[in-house]
Amino acid sequence: MLTALKRIVQEVNQTPVLDDALNCLADRLKEALEVDSCSIYLADYEQQHFLLFATEGLAKSAVGQVKIGFSEGLVGLTAQREEPINISDAHHHPRFKHYPEVKEDNYHAFLGAPIIHQRKVLGVLTLQQQQKRRFSEDEEAFLVTLAMQLAVEIANAKARGSINLLQENIPKDWQKAVKGVPGSSGLAIGFGFIQNLMVNIRNHLPKRSNHTQQEIEHYRQAVKKTQEDMAILSDRVQGEVPDDVQAIFQLYHHLLDANSLGRDVEKEIKKGWDAPTSLKMVIESFIRQFQSMNDAYMRERAVDIEDMGNRVLANIIGISANEPFTREPHDQTILIAEEVTAVMLAEFPSEKLVGIISIRGSNNSHAAIMARAMGVPAVMGLDNVPIVMLRDKEILLDGYTGDVIVSPNGTIRHEFDQLILEEKLLSERIHSEDTLPALTKDNCTMSLLVNSGLSMETEVSTNPYSDGVGLFRTEIPFMMRQRFPTEQEQVELYKGLLESEPDKQFTMRTLDVGGDKPLAYFPIVEENPFLGWRGIRLTLDHPEIFLVQIRAMLRASFDLDNLSIMLPMITSVSEVSEAKRLIRQAFNEVEDEAEEKCAKLVMPQIGVMLEVPAVLYQLPQLAKIVDFFSVGSNDLTQYLLAVDRNNARVAGLYDSYHPAVLSALHSIVKTSDTLQVPVTVCGELAGEPGGVVLLVAMGYRKLSMNTHNLLKVKWIIRNIYQNEAEQLLAKVVTLNNPEDVRSEVNLFLEATGLGGLVRAGC
Fold first, then answer.
1. Of the candidates 178, 116, 201, which has an alpha carbon nearest to the alpha carbon of residue 383?
2. Engineered SS bond to 402: which of 182, 232, 304, 324, CB 3.0-4.6 Å?
3. Which of 80, 76, 79 lies closest to 66 in space, CA to CA?
4. Which of 47, 39, 99 is nearest to 69 (CA)?
5. Beta-sheet pairing, 468-473 with 505-509
6. Residue 569 pLDDT greater than 70, yes or no
7. 414 tagged catalytic
């Protein structure tokens, strides 16, 4: 059965359009299990019914016509129970419902399996037999296994909009809604732009064409051009490469022959596909064949076949296979990438950037944090959407809900324009009070600092509305170079920062790379990078890196008294002791230089990030050797909940409103107050409206957030009463799940007139 399962799955995966794939599945499954009928029903949640989508055994005329209500029949029962239903005589079951259109009067045995993706029933897969019998356990297990694999394909197809929808049939005013994970709040209207998009046969979207002869001619011309390119390359390397490398060109020549690749591609074109799609189908079939070979050398040739396919595809499209699509971004651009990086944002003209879509990532991935720091709306985690589907399309982006609307119609566009206007008016109201103090209505004073370091430029601009910098991420200058920055390069950067606001606190975090912040010139390959060699663990293992950075910080602080140093990823007291020993060593070394220059050198305050749960139980010991604590709520949440915050698949489990996270945060501030150690929250929760209310209620008096959120946070603080926030906290700590907590917090914000900060519109 395993062999049959693999064969069926492989054949289904090779079929580019879901309609055809499901028909293929029904046929192959009926044949493999020797049953009389196999059918697939897909859920329509708007209409609340299952639609017969494909069948082998029931009446073909019923496909697309028969609709079974969610609470009707055995199909509805299978979905409701979310488990297989195995019945020997379906006609006598109380939930059996007769649908004359499907012509199933002669079928008695019934086996149904739900198709479930991420807890949502997408459809039902059924087998039927004329004789009265229970399907065997093997048959049931086979169907369940197949349904699980089919669920992913259906979810992907729904996200792509490819169910019964081919590109040439899409009207100009066609609108498609795609759901992602909110990454950065705000609304944006712009045109999708993909930077450095390379020709890749895997990313090509299937498309039909009625111009068969024209498509064949396009394909033949592209093959001729590819053959000419290959001949030039082959001649160029003649005698300079080993024979086995030269043999690759022979493989290319053979495959490009009309009797090999050409015959199969033209066969697909005659079935109604365009030339690029036909090429894609045949090349991917060749790739799978080579990858399944026993010989290692032949398996490796799959890469060469893909490369050749990309070259032919590029020639069909009419561009170079080795160069990206080049196009000037629109004045209102939504930047789209598989994963948005700091370098991409640095290279992109900021005046044209209105929104960000990152196919991978989640609400607290590095890309989302960068977007929030820039004040740019962002949606993350559109895992099931081919990136090329969004290229050059007009897009409405809702960073509050994670909704992405592609090619919006006029009505939706008008409504979105109104919401953007309301958002602008709210922003103007917030800025009208920018110089007023961060004081609650009952006179609780808050200190607001900023997180910085995500900008690729040297950040020397002052921020008149903050009380200083609560977190400067020193790793970004390291990530932007092709080598470790020299001590003098670091001195110049840090000195400019410290001198920009000499009377305000400036906290620099030592190098925190690893996890989702790699260095290209110092690669770290680990199975679990977030639990691996990162932060203080790395720099203590490389004191030469740590000492150079500390020396640079100290030298930059000559004649200044505003530097604090913060240690990331602390797990034990011994790490802090070792780091402090190195800091003292660096101080002694730099002290001599200060005396030579007649400069004043002050030992900075040393603090630690509270982000690893273990340190929550070591606060009394840490309090004896550090000057301050800073809570990194992003990683603390990640480690408390054992959820990778960059993984969109489990993004729903990552929630700083989880009762366990709130309990930990409350415990930290109470313990810190008892120990008389200052504590700041510098994670994203400190810049999130509901998070601010809860942190004020817990007793935190210092919050650090990205610059873009600072005035919003001040607005929140000035519009709440501390005692009312404490009443809210007392209520939410009794709740069992983060959804209920979020609901209560949002109700509080709405009642306080602050709802426009957590949703679109005033």
1. 178
2. 182
3. 76
4. 47
5. parallel
6. yes
7. no
Residues 6+ apart with CB under 8 A from 613: 636, 639, 640, 664
Of the two residues 271 and 619, the one the predictor is more confident about is 619
The pLDDT tens digits of the residues spanning 251-303 come to: 677 777 777 788 889 998 998 888 988 998 888 888 878 877 777 767 777 78
Chain centre to alpha carbon of residue 91 = 47
Torsion sign over Cα 177, 182, 184, 187: positive
- What pTM value is reported for the model? 0.77
User: What does 686-741 look like in DSSP terms, one character per residue?
Assistant: GGSHHHHHHHHHHT--EEEEEHHHHHHHHHHHHTS-HHHHHHHHHHHTT-SSHHHH
pLDDT over 50 (residue 166): no
**Count of residues for the chain?**
762
Same domain, 291 and 370: no
Contacting residues for 169 by C-beta, under 8 A, at least 6 apart = 208
**Cα dihedral sign for 380, 385, 391, 395?**
negative
Residue at 762 is within a domain: no
What CATH number is associated with residue 469?
3.20.20.60
The residue type of 213 is: Q
DSSP strand pairing (394-398 vs 49-56):
unpaired
Task: Indicate the DSSP class of residue 445.
Answer: B
List the one residue out of 116, 120, 115, 118 whose CA is nearest residue 650. 118
Non-local (6+) Cβ contacts of 160 within 8 A are 205, 384, 385, 386, 389
Confidence class of residue 458 from pLDDT cuts 50, 70 and 90?
very low
**Which of 179-193, 195-209, 388-402, 711-725 ranks highest by mean pLDDT?**
711-725
Instruction: For residue 456, give the nearest of 473, 441, 433 by alpha carbon.
Output: 473
At residue 494's C-alpha, the angle toward residues 592 and 339, to 5°, is: 140
Write the burial class of residue 186 (CB in 10 Å: 0-12 exposed, 13-18 middle, 19+ buried): buried
In this structure, the answer to whether residues 219 and 92 fall within a common structural domain is no
State how many domains the chain has. 4
> What's the confidence (pLDDT) of residue 762?
65
Q: Tokens standing for 636?
A: 């603390």
Q: Are residues 423 and 535 in the same domain?
A: no
The SS3 of residue 54 is: strand
d(CA 263, CA 250): 18
Of 317, 341, 360, which one is at a domain's C-terminal end?
Answer: 317
Q: Helix or strand or coil: residue 647?
A: coil
- The answer to the question of residue 640 being in a domain is yes
Residue of 38, 204, 682, 708 marked catalytic: 682
Domain boundary among 427, 451, 467: 427
Residue of 108, 117, 204, 366 marked catalytic: 366
Q: Which tokens sit at 304?
A: 């060469």
Q: Are residues 147 and 292 in the same domain?
A: no
Q: Are 174 and 161 in contact (CB under 8 A)?
A: no
Domain membership of residue 253 as a residue range: 201-317
Alpha-carbon gap, residue 550 to 546, rounded angstroms: 6
The DSSP symbol for 113 reads: E
Q: Which two tokens stand for residue 720?
A: 């709440």
pLDDT digits (tens, 9 = 90+) for 28-46: 899 888 999 999 999 998 8
Q: Which tokens hold the place of 261?
A: 């690749």
Give strand ranges (E) for 206-363: 333-337, 353-358
